[in-house]
Amino acid sequence: MVSDAYPRPFDERRQAGLERGGVLGLDPLLLGAALGLIGFSLFTLKAVTGGDVPHDPYFYVVRQAIYGVLGVALMLAIARVDYSRFRELRVGLYTAMMGSIILVLLLGQATRGSRRWIELPFFTFQPSELGKVLLITALAGFAIDRGRRVNERQQTARLMLMGFVPALIVFLQPDLGTAVTYVVITLAILFVVGVRWTHFALLGALLAVAVTAVLAIAPAVGHPVLKGYQQERLTSFLNPSSDPRDATYQIDQSLIAIGSGGKVGRGADSTQTENGFVPDRTTDFIFSVVGERFGFVGAAFVLSLYALLIWRALRIMTLSKNLYGSLIAGAIAAMFMCQVLVNIGVAIGIMPVTGIPLPLMSFGGSSVVVTLMAVGLLQSIYVQARLTSKSRADLLR
Amino acid sequence: MFGERERPLMPAQFALRVAILSGFALVMFSIIFFRLWYLQVLSGDKYLKQAKNNQVREITVRAPRGEILDRQGHVLVDNRTALALQLDPTRLPRSHRRRAQEFARLGQVIGMSPDQISKQLHEQTKELPANPVTLRRDVAYDLVYYLRENQAAYPGVDVQRVYVRNYPDGSLGAQIFGYVREVTENQLKEPRYQGLIPGDQVGQSGVENTYDNVLRGTNGLTRVQVDAAGQPTGGVLSETQAKAGDNLLLSIDAPVQQAGEAALNSFSTPGAFVAMNVQDGEILGLGSSPTFDPSIFTKPVISPSTYRQLTSQTTGAPLTDRAIQGLYPTGSTFKPITAMAALESGVMTPSTTIVDGGSFTEGGITLHNAGGGAYGALQLPQALQVSSDVFFYNVGAMLSREGNDAQQKWAADLGIGHPTGIDLPGEVAGLLPTPAWRNKLYKQAQSPDSPGGTSIVPGDPTDRPWTEGDNVNLAIGQGDLQADPLQMAVAYASIANGGDVVRPHVGLEVQDPRGGVVQEINPGPQRHLDINPQYRQAILDGIHMAAQSAGGTSYQVFGNFPIPMAGKTGTAQRPGQADQSWYVALAPYPNPQIVVAATIEQGGFGVEAAAPVARQILDAYYNTHKQAAKSAGGKVPSQGSIQAGPAAGAAGNPY
Predict the structure, then answer these.
(1) CA-nearest residue of chain A to B234?
(2) Do B129 and B236 fall into the same domain?
(3) What average pLDDT does range B475-499 have in this prediction?
(4) What pLDDT is attached to residue B576?
(5) Residue A308 contacts B, CB cutoff 8 Å
(6) Does residue B546 lie in a domain region?
(7) B8–A148: do the CB atoms touch at under 8 Å?
(8) B393 shares its domain with B536
(9) Which chain A residues contact residue B35 at CB under 8 A?
(10) What SS3 state is found at B238?
(11) What is the mean pLDDT of chain B?
(12) Are B281 and B424 members of one domain?
């Protein structure tokens, strides 16, 4: 039944791609990239936070390691499950995502401030992070449901709405960075599922109008949509000299940190990230730490691990046994690309300051665990494709 | 198997989209890679330099000023540490809005308006933008604790220990010491303040000003490694120690100074005194009343009302040092100067006899002795003893006719009418009236170009040309004469020491902080006058009798003084107020070591106010010397400066 297999044009190469099978039939390169990033994260955190908590030089390292172990366990569990089953749960997954982010929004309003976390007995949990994988699995399922009518304008609009509404809710929490990720996920699924170019053009125009409205028109008429600091961050990127202490200051200090790292890094002599010139050095600006401590060599190494991760995601997208898998893999690849581009882009001064974690590198349980869950989904797609091709090969033999 | 609905895509289109996505990833990684290459490999050195600059902060360590000691080593002025509230401009929020909010919060807790804080910040950072700005000194501990606890709400607010002048004896010597304030913008441009930075303290008056370069010390500089919050991270990159200023030993004798100030304070009207070594011009005591509390100037801000109180005429302008800035006629204390001029110019001799008939007529005006009465035939010593005005009116007239301006020449030579050159800032010249001076002014007043045109204002010093009457008035220290106690002390000292016109000085020695002598201050006399010893003796005899012989003008004050001495009273008439009391004393007679000049505004006759002031100062002077001699040798001095006089036994005085 060759006609059932998808996508056919890549069959031979697909076959070749699946020949390699590591532990438990997982994609060894993907696994290596993920573990390599986690390991490098621990290494970096150890170097930079050794003196942060008195009498506990491993405070950050131990926690990040626990998150990593938890994430790897979840990754392995998900890899053993056939991801196709998630498609049947799409309504439940979507409801769970919406429910949790709305809950956070309501709790946040109760405390009259920015709130992204839910306090759990063991750690604080950030539902909008988990929402990323929930959104990917649910939205990919909905996209296939209506696959037959994929070129219809109505279909595009529905998917957009399903993706943009949670994005808006997350944005209101307020969490601009995650909201951007949601938008990118939605666009990636629309893109991979085959939405018409004209629709994309229209969408692009719409986004341009929205951004202009939020940044320029709304504040001008007295109803600012962005919180003060968000506006400041975004516009300071456009006018570098307007407020040196806050947003541009952060970029400047991050640039000095990374630049001063030179070819091989300053190691223990680091001062920019060591003495607090660079803010959020364990989370949003962890790449500045890598740049200063380990120099171009270290930064390029991290970058190559991300290249490997994203290449494998794109490759698995083509290996997938079905469209659902391709959509998930494409969305995850786009999500990783978005996060890497925005996070590193901010650190090297080519992006406006937006708080977004660097996958697997930034300290933080929610982000690490969820990223590893996404890797688990990719592994599941890989494993299933491999099983399928194996059984097909057995049949043909 | 997945059904038909699983294959919606044209495979070619799917491939295209995967390719686009991959292309996007490739572009993204390329941009990041080349940007990193540019930042780290190509611009690495530039950023490394910036990173190193980022972490260095230069901290000025201010040097404590040297101490000011009296001649015995008694501390008159030292330093104490005070808590100063400072703003570090580099750590203040950059956003105007947030900065204004912080100033509003801070203003509330320290009692300043946000505008005042901004003004201070602006003014004190004009020259060095990163220098800390002192808002308040001597802040209370509870405020310090509050600010420490709420540090996050007050970025850039620091509490530093700073050195502040301390005056253990309160207002004692305030006029001599002067005060210390932050160097002003204009002062920074002067060569003598080269190398100072805003915020440095410099002496603004008194010896603090004269000897500022000695007392000031050298700031230290510590370059430390700091974090983004400006907090030191432990690494001191380089350090130059602050070098404390040298100590200044004054010639002031604290007990003499104390006695003088106490004596002045017993009068409700202003006054001044000078006690000086006759031989070398060392000032033993110098004071002016009313005085002020110099610690007022240790506050960073002085309120306008306080400043008005220090300078206003109604409060007696406490900042004015009347000993060197008073402008007074001196009354009869001027007579020895007149006598010296008359003797040296040859218009009379010590034995020239003039009959005091009780009055003197000159130009149609008849003048009498101050106390009325007539003293009969007088020679110079007796004339000085009783302070005969008529005698000196005649001398003045003789000098005018035959003296060829000797009166003015000798008065000027003895130091009247120009600054004595004392090492205190702000000394005035005074006025020694001469024919040339008055005639010139009169000529100017007559000229049509003058403000009043050709009309003459009666009573104005310019209302008429010089006449003999001016000289007659000058002979007894009246008329247009304006002198201060220091000038009188110098004139008397010059006569007493045989012609050395001393240069008075309060600085005696510069010592390093460990007490080693760095420099001795001994300026030497201004000039030497050839004085006939006989004439000197006649004058000293006269004023010795004035003080210690029955019938002398100050016998009632000094008759029982245990040390033989000489002294001359003065009662100066000033328009619009009661007579000013003057006294100048020389002790011991006949070879004086100390001269004391005192004056009390509106104090009445010389013997009523100024003479008792001089007596108390001399008491203190001999008391200390006796004790010093006792502790040194255990023997009551029997020679030299401390000779028991004839009156000692009679008065039963403990000297």
Answers:
(1) A275
(2) yes
(3) 94
(4) 85
(5) no
(6) yes
(7) yes
(8) yes
(9) 348-350
(10) strand
(11) 85
(12) yes
Q: How many CB pairs under 8 A join A and B?
A: 170
Domain-located, residue A2: no
Q: Of the candidates A7, A245, A275, which has its C-beta nearest B14's C-beta?
A: A7
Supply the pLDDT for residue A281.
84
Residue A4 lies in a domain: no
CA dist A367 to A168, A358, A359, Å? 20, 9, 7
CB contact under 8 A, B21 and A333: yes
| A227: Cβ contacts below 8 Å, ≥ 6 apart | A114, A174
Q: What ipTM goes with this model?
A: 0.88
SS (H, E, C) A288-333: HHHHHHHHHHHHHHHHHHHHHHHHHHHHHHHHCCCHHHHHHHHHHH
Q: Is B81 helix (H, G, I), strand (E, B) or coil?
A: strand
% of chain A with per-residue pLDDT over 70: 79
Residue type, B237: L
Asked whether residue B245 falls in the same domain as residue B287, the answer is: no
Average pLDDT over residues A309-327: 93
Q: For chain B, how far is it from start to end, CA to CA, in angstroms?
A: 131
B8: nearest CB among A150, A276, A292 = A150
CA atoms of A223 and B480, how far apart (whole Å): 81
Q: Decide if B127 is inside a domain.
A: yes
Is the model more confident about B86 or about B624? Answer: B86
Which residue on chain A is closest to B22 by alpha carbon?
A314
CB–CB of B28 and A337 under 8 A? yes
The fraction of chain A above a pLDDT of 90, given in percent, is 45
Report CA B171 to chain centroid distance, whole Å: 13
Q: Which one has a higher pLDDT value, B274 or B450? A: B274
Report pLDDT digits (tens) over B426-476: 999 999 999 888 888 888 877 777 666 666 666 666 678 888 888 899 999
> In whole angstroms, what is the distance from residue A54 CA to residue B371 CA?
91
B156 shares a domain with B66: yes
List the single residue in B1, B11, B227 with the smallest CB-CB distance to A4: B1
Q: Which residues on A lie below 8 Å from B96 (Cβ)?
A: none
Range of the domain at B237: 57-250
Number of domains making up chain A: 1
Is B7 contained in some domain?
no
Are A258 and B40 a contacting pair at CB < 8 A? yes
Q: How far is B97 from chain A (nearest CA, A)?
A: 11
Strand, coil or helix: B202: strand
The pairing of beta strand B75-87 with beta strand B133-137: antiparallel
Within a domain: residue A176?
Answer: yes
- Inspect the interface and report whether the beta carbons of A245 and B94 lie closer than 8 Å: yes
Tell me if A188 and B25 make a contact (CB, 8 A cut-off): no
Q: Which pLDDT score is estimated for A3?
A: 37
Same domain, B404 and B543: yes
Q: In the predicted model, is pLDDT for residue A24 greater than 80?
A: no
- Put simply, whether A126 touches B (Cβ < 8 Å) is no
Distance of CA B8 to the CA centre of its chain: 100
Q: Residue B569 forms beta bridges with which residues?
A: B583
Domain extent for A89: 9-396
A3 within some domain = no
- Confidence at residue B30, expressed as pLDDT on a 0 to 100 scale: 95
Q: In chain B, whose CA is at the least distance from the CA of A321? A: B2
**Option in A257, A275, A296 nearest B36 (CB):** A296
What's the domain count of chain B?
Answer: 2
pLDDT of res. B151:
75
Query: What value does the mean pLDDT take over residues A377-385?
Result: 94
> Testing the interface with A: which of B6, B14, B30, B91 to mutate, by most A Cβ within 10 A?
B14
Residues B537 and B611 in one domain: yes
CATH code of the domain containing B171: 3.90.1310.10
Residue B647 reports pLDDT greater than 80: no
In this structure, the answer to whether residues B202 and B291 fall within a common structural domain is: no
Predicted confidence band of residue A246 (pLDDT cuts 50, 70, 90): low
Mean pLDDT to the nearest integer, B573-587: 92
B40 within a domain of the structure (yes/no): no
Distance from CA of B106 to the nearest CA of A (A): 20
How far does A272 lie from chain B, in Å, by closest CA? 6
Whether the upstream peptide bond of residue B590 has omega within 30° of 0, thus cis, is yes
What CATH number did the domain enclosing B522 receive?
3.40.710.10
